[in-house]
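Tokens for chain A. Residues wanted.
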């Protein structure tokens, strides 16, 4: 079952993510319009729109681009992501080695067969439920660096990371 996410997000009081923009990870800092460089925030939060997406994940619903995928539809296609592929994916997203380790261990809670669909969605939901834990803050910092690195995870940043993870498992 697929639902147009625009209607679903409107029901939750938000809007759909923008499309077509290139997302690139920002590593240590970001320059503003004047060229001044600012350090990334030490504590990262979720925007209202990103909290909606975390709620969807908590209910077992994954988001990829503009389509909300029901759990059965995802599980029919989702193949657990091996730990080494997960490490490589987080590295490509700009995570530092210590962040990669924290993320892999935080997502793959059973350490058996790689990252399962349930572990992926539960990990994303933890950003809302356990926002101040080391895992949640690490995940949100990586999300935040995918675009603005302003200390607040936007809907676009949340969806970007989630889409990359869902795509890796949807081989």
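Reply:
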């Amino acid at each position: 079952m697929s639902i147009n996410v625009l209607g679903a997000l409107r029901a939750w009081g938000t809007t759909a993510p923008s499309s077509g923009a290139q997302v690139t990870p920002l590593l240590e800092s970001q320059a503003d319009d004047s060229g001044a460089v600012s350090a990334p925030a030490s504590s990262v939060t979720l925007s209202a729109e990103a909290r909606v997406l975390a709620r969807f994940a908590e209910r077992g619903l994954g988001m990829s681009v503009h389509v909300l995928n029901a759990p059965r539809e995802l599980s029919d296609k989702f193949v657990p992501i091996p730990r080494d592929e997960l490490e490589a994916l987080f590295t490509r997203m700009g995570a530092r080695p210590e962040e990669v380790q924290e993320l892999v261990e935080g997502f793959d809670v059973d350490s058996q067969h790689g990252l399962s669909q349930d572990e992926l969605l539960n990990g994303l939901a933890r950003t809302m439920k356990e926002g101040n834990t080391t895992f949640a803050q690490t995940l949100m910092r990586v999300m935040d660096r995918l675009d603005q690195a302003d200390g607040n995870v936007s809907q676009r940043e949340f969806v970007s990371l989630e889409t990359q993870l869902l795509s890796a498992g949807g081989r």
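The longest helix spans residues 155-169. Residues 2-14+42-169 form one domain.
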